[in-house]
Amino acid sequence: MIEARNLTKFFHDKKRGEIRAVDNVSFTCRPGQIYGLLGANGAGKTTTLRLLATLLRPTGGSATVAGFDTVANPERVRASVGFLATSTALYSRLTARETIAYFGRLNGLTAAEVAERTRRLADELDLHEFLDRRVDKFSTGMKQKTSIARTVVHDPAVLIFDEPTIGLDVMTARNIVRFVRDCRTRGKTVIYSTHVMSEVEKICDVIGIIHQGRLVAEGPLADLRLRFGEQDMEEIFVRAIGGEEVAA
Amino acid sequence: MNRSNVVTVYLKELRDSLRDRRTLISMIVVPTLMIPGIMLVAGVVSYMVVNKAREEVPAVMVLGGNDSPVVRAALTADQKIRLVPATADWKQRITDKQLRAAVEIPAGFDAALEHGDATVLKIFNYESELRSGFAVGELHRFFNTYREKIITARLTGRGLPAALVKPFEVKTENVAPPEKVGGNVIGGIIPYLFILLCFTGAMYPAIDLTAGEKERGTMETILCSPVGRADLVLGKFLMVLTAALGTVVFSLLSMGLTFMLGGLLFAKTAAGGAAVAAAKSGAAPMLPTIDPLGTLTVLAMVLPVAVLFSAVLMAVSLFAKSVKEAQSYVSPLIVVVILPAMMGMLPGVELNTRLALVPILNLALVSKELVSGVFHWHYLALIFGSTCVYATVALAFCVRMFNREDVLFRT
Ligand SMILES: Nc1ncnc2c1ncn2[C@@H]1O[C@H](COP(=O)(O)OP(=O)(O)OP(=O)(O)O)[C@@H](O)[C@H]1O
Ligand SMILES: [Mg+2]
Predict the structure, then answer these.
(1) By the number of CB atoms within 10 A of the CB, which of A241, B83, B283, B345 ranks highest?
(2) Nearest CA to ligand 1 atom 8
(3) Are B226 and A106 in contact (CB under 8 A)?
(4) How confident is the model at residue A34 (pLDDT cuts 50, 70, 90)?
(5) What Rg do the C-alpha atoms of chain B give, in angstroms?
(6) Which of A16, A81, A90, A102 to substitute to test the interface with B, most B CBs within 10 Å?
(7) For ligand 1, atom 30, which residue shows the shortest CA distance?
């Protein structure tokens, strides 16, 4: 369960002045649901997800993740969250197995539990072939699979994915989308940001469209289609953020 | 604090660093090669230069004095001075270092002495040149002896005792133990090297574990794991400290080996005639013994300094976005480290209560004494204590930096 209430994050930049990266955003994401976060570049998606993962402190408002407040209980929140973003790289001098073990241990798993989880994840994500090779020799796809294993090693109740399919080939991207779906099946709370509209149409139960830090539209795909009178997700998105000229 | 997380982070960073060739170079290769390199080069060069200059019988030209055969004969007879025939270009030849010095004997020198008239001798040298200086020394020795002989002759001629113009004599004798002599020659350099290597040893991993992680994008990965910020800092800090102390230990081992090998080498050449002469002339304590207990104490005193360096380096590099930026912040700090260490090498600067509170400088000063086998316990306690306080403050500062999101996510 994720609950964001009037979540706000301002940055101060010497040149740009005050940046309202996230402005009064409220939403709820339930277990067994995939919440799709959509927005143009710089809309505030990554900042929102970082606030949920306790990497940033909100300027205003609050959020509870898996029942814990992100400000009062950041370490408990992180123990219940798997966070995967374009900016969460892997240690290049560790092997895939060592990477999974490291994050498993930091999440409080015993050595036996780590071994068991590694075997399970290697089966699920098809890691066996490169499990004992160093990450710096990996292809982008191998890295992303290892990253996912790292993210879910402690079997968290909440999963936060920030553009997980960026830069991947079709097959690898499909694999990852399937994995995200499996998470929903297992009752996880999933929040997912992407620029790929087809993925949104395929997997998201609820869609939130964020524009200049504000949540401008929210609801299941069917509701958004009705509200904007469009079938295509891309058209809905463009209308939601106020037309072509605003996006340009 | 979760101790098991600190250990997990530390072990991971240790494994990661040991797989990094650059860490190994800065921690093991640099100190093991640098110490014998510096010591041997410095030792051998100064040994050779000084001995060569000492062994050389300086070439000296006598200008004038053709009407004074007595003093000329005495000069020619002197074993430590080699006379060369007078030429017109003597000034140029001194400048070209073909001639060490020249002495001008005024006209009628012998005759003036005979009559008791005062005369002036002139010595020409090349100021600040070592071998020219030795030549001048020899000339002074010769003329002083010559003068004393004449004075004694004159006094006895008038029936007076020689002690009339020489009421007392001055003799110099060395009472310092050999360690002390060695301590002062090498003692200035050793703590300086330890401090410098301790710093450079911590530098690379401190940057790599902070700015390097930001640059490679792994910082956010580790920050979104449940490990507490303080545990993360401590684990990383322990790795940087390991590298700093590792560098010092490797340089210490390498130094011990250098002394052993150097001792063997010296013993061998000492069998040869040249070295025997060198030993006689007092050049022997070039490879001196240094107090082993004192050296170990230096090592113990380096510990809080290593903590201080590691914490400061980490805090400063964490602020940077990239390794390059971190290097530009850290490089000027080398000067901050070298300056007090160099001041400690200056002859006049001695330890006192106030200087004992100045970090780095205090260590350089007390180490000079320690390797000589002299223990000032109250200063040692003061230095250790004050440095521990500085180190704790620096570490606390480092933890604070890790809690600032504008530092971690600086754009
Ligand atoms: N640490 C920071 N300091 C200052 N400004 C920031 C910081 N992080 C983000 N911003 C600004 O906040 C705004 C929102 O950025 P954010 O990364 O959340 O956008 P995004 O929706 O994830 O964009 P993208 O699709 O390009 O990933 C942008 O204007 C960005 O420049
Ligand atoms: Mg983003």
Answers:
(1) A241
(2) A47
(3) yes
(4) very high
(5) 31
(6) A102
(7) A42
Q: What is the CATH number of domain B57-164?
A: 3.40.1710.10
Q: Is the pLDDT of residue B180 over 60?
A: no
**Quick check: helix, strand or coil at residue A24?**
strand
At A204, phi and psi to the nearest 5? -85, 130
Residues of B in contact with A133 (CB under 8 A): none
The C-alpha of A65 sits at a distance from chain B's nearest C-alpha, in angstroms, of 14
CA of A127 to the centre of ligand 2 (A): 27
H-run or E-run covering B114: helix B109-115
Ligand 1 and A39: CB distance under 6 A: yes
Q: What is the DSSP track for A53-105?
A: TTSS--SEEEEEETTEETTT-HHHHHHTEEEE-TT-PPPTTSBHHHHHHHHHH
pLDDT in tens, B270-299: 444 444 444 444 444 444 456 677 777 877
DSSP B235-296: HHHHHHHHHHHHHHHHHHHHHHHHHHHHHHHHHHHHHSHHHHHHHHTT-GGGS----HHHHH
Query: Across chain A, where does the E strand assignment appear?
Result: 2-13, 17-29, 34-38, 60-65, 68-69, 81-84, 158-162, 189-193, 206-211, 214-219
- The pLDDT, as a whole number, for residue B289 is 55
Closest C-alpha residue for ligand 1 atom 18: A44
Q: What stretch of H or E contains B109?
A: helix B109-115
Domain boundaries, chain B: 3-43+177-408, 57-164
Give the 3-state secondary structure of residue B103: strand
Ligand number nearest CA of A17 is 1
Q: Quick check: A87 contacting B, CB < 8 Å?
A: yes
* Both structure tokens of A35: 């919440």
Residues of B in contact with A89 (CB under 8 A): 216-218, 220-221
| Residue in this structure with the two tokens 């003068």, named with its chain if needed | B147
For residue A79, which residues of chain B lie inside 8 Å, CB to CB?
A: 226
pTM score, whole prediction? 0.79
CA of B329 to the centre of ligand 2 (A): 29
Residues present in chain B in total: 411
Q: Is A219 exposed, middle or buried (0-12, 13-18, 19+ CB in 10 A)?
A: middle
B15 touches chain A (CB under 8 A): yes
Interface residue A202 vs chain B (CB under 8 A):
no
**Pick among B4, B225, B229, B411 to test the A interface (most A CBs inside 10 A):** B225
Burial B55-89 (b: 16+ CB within 10 A, else e): eeebbbbbebbeebeebbeebeebeebeeeeeeee
